[in-house]
Amino acid sequence: MRIILITGISGSGKSVGLNALEDAGYFCVDNLPPKLLRHLVEIRLEENGDTLAVAMDARSADSLAGLPDDISLLKEEGHDVKVLFLTAKTESLITRFSETRRSHPLSHRVRPELGRAGQPTLTECILREREMMSAIEGIGHVIDTSGLSANKLRAWIKDLVETERTPLTLLFESFAFKFGVPLDADLVFDVRVLPNPFYDTTLRPYTGRDEPVIAFLDAQAHVAELLADIRNFVGKWLPAFKNDNRSYLTVAIGCTGGQHRSVYMVEQLARHFRASERVLLRHRELS
């Protein structure tokens, strides 16, 4: 059976992700206590089901400790189990809770700071939840949803589902340093040392996908040199990541605005590795 466990920090988009999995044909269950996971799998097998998606979060934190062992047992039984861990920067989570005017799920379970009465602050709840979920984060593929629209998150989940049977998927992601490094990056490369097309007013409206910017960067010797260095580094260590039984390896390339240089580099790297590997592209700052 193909099983996807979607978990992470409250407000990071688990409901959106679960809906995307339901649209992809998965039988979905929300907020399942982890101790019931194996029993649910047995029920699905009795019903001849071949897919299952389950959302879990800190509301069941007391029984999350045994989840890694349950996942290992399910894999030993021959099930294809993937864990997606959604997270976001604290400021993004605060904005989302403020917009929806919902209280944090832990607001009645976390004690406020010492010497202060009443309910804990939203920030206190988020920090406590990160502590509670830290052990689970290490066993899953992390997706940073900071600044992502619901539509883009659904598209990313769909792409990941389509690659679930491949041994390892290379994710190349462009981003802007001014908006922060992606939390889900395994490898991060800084290409701000390269000539910036932004300062050419004729190139500024374009992106690293467009021919004028491509031609400009192709003509720069340092661009080709840095591209070759990154390509060789990823190629050299990719077998080691595969041997580590990873499902995904996220390589993030950053520049100042996330429009030109990082986009160009990601496109070039994806074109090179696509000949031999399963590759996905993400341009975080492009609409």
UniProtKB/TrEMBL annotation:
Q: Where are the transmembrane segments?
A: none
Which residues does ATP bind?
A: 8-15
One Pfam family here? RapZ-like_N
* Protein's UniProt keywords contain Transmembrane: no
User: Which branch of life, at top level?
Assistant: Bacteria
Supply the alphabetized keyword list.
ATP-binding, GTP-binding, Nucleotide-binding
Q: Which InterPro entries match?
A: P-loop_NTPase (IPR027417), RapZ-like (IPR005337), RapZ-like_N (IPR053930), RapZ_C (IPR053931)
GO MF annotation list:
ATP binding; GTP binding
Give start and end of each RapZ C-terminal domain. Answer: 169-286
Residue ranges of domain RapZ-like N-terminal in the record = 1-164
Which positions bind GTP? 57-60
Q: Which Gene3D superfamilies match?
A: P-loop containing nucleotide triphosphate hydrolases
Q: Which NCBIfam families match?
A: PRK05416.1 (NF003828)
The record, for HAMAP family, names: RapZ_like
Protein's recorded name? RNase adapter RapZ
